[in-house]
Amino acid sequence: MNKLVAAAMVALAASSTWAIQGTIKCEKGQWSGDITWMASKKTYLVAYKKGKTDVSAECPLADVESLEIPKPAGFDKAVEMVRRGQGSAAIGTLAKIVNDYKMLSWDKPAGRYLVEAYLAANNPQKAFDTAQGIIKGDSDAAWTGDLAPAYWQTLLKLGQNQRLENCLRKATSSGDRPTSAEALLMRGDMILAAGGDLPDTYRKALVDAYLRVVLMYPDENCKAVRADAMQKAAGCFDKIGMASRAEQMRSQAKAL
């Protein structure tokens, strides 16, 4: 048996993740085939055909330039359930995607909605455990990308303020505009959580966070977070008796 093929079979057997079809590009080249994440080596293994021969190649995480994996079956339906407030019905599907696609592109998007589903079910500890399982493989996921905002909400819910502050500090200094906008949005949530149900608390969240996101981040790739900021700003305006301003915010959010 070809030594490369034998090595690939051993690696696949030892992996907790099924191989997933996709295309990976790194410094050494580009390959399409069955891709598996090997956590112990922090390397992707791709098994593919070269003519009629089964061969494989390894691509260390640090060398990866792009990773293209088709959307998992059931992902869109599960996300829609979470958005409709039916997250408990989507937990099984999302948990399977997180497990099967570990470090294979879709674990973090699915992880975000799985964390949101657990939070909606008032189970922040399970949300935290889910997020930590993903962050263990990619520490940057704690402060940037799909998972980060849901993870921050979990930390806020659990009162882990120091860990949350560390994440926001990294997010703000990253230079990534959507990430910075999400961090500022989170600042508003922290103000509300710490300040109590007082008019001054809502005004501070508006001025120091939500309205700043609306004004400072007109970028196309910040559209989603701006819409969230407008909705949260609307809630604050309602609390301080400015109903017309609240409705204006909601209309602007829907128009984005």
Can you walk me through this structure?
57% of the residues lie in helices and 15% in strands. The protein is of the alpha+beta class and 256 residues long. It folds into 3 domains: 3-68, no CATH class; 71-158; 175-256, no CATH class. The chain has a 5-stranded antiparallel beta sheet with strand order 4-3-2-1-5, with helices on one face. A hairpin with a 4-residue loop joins strand 2 (29-38) and strand 3 (43-50). Helix 4 (107-120) packs antiparallel against helix 5 (124-135), helix 4 packs parallel to helix 6 and helix 10 (223-239) packs antiparallel against helix 11. The radius of gyration is 21 Å and the shape is elongated. Mean pLDDT is 90; it is low at 1-17.
Q: What is the H/E string?
A: HEEEEEHHHHHHHHHH
Numbering strands along the chain, what is their spatial order in the largest sheet? 4-3-2-1-5
What distance lies between the first and last C-alpha atoms, to the nearest angstrom? 58 Å
What is the quaternary state of this protein? single chain
Largest sheet: 5 strands, antiparallel
Give the total of beta strands: 5
Total domain units? 3
What would you call the structural class? alpha+beta
Helix content: 55-70%
Poorly predicted regions are 1-17
- The count of helical stretches stands at 11
Mean pLDDT: 90
Explain the layout of strands and helices.
Elements: H1 3-14, E1 20-26, E2 29-38, E3 43-50, E4 53-60, E5 64-68, H2 75-83, H3 91-100, H4 107-120, H5 124-135, H6 148-158, H7 161-172, H8 177-195, H9 199-216, H10 223-239, H11 243-255
Antiparallel strand pairs: 1-2, 1-5, 2-3, 3-4
Helix pairs in contact: 2-4, 3-4, 4-5, 4-6, 5-6, 6-7, 6-8, 7-8, 8-9, 8-10, 9-10, 10-11
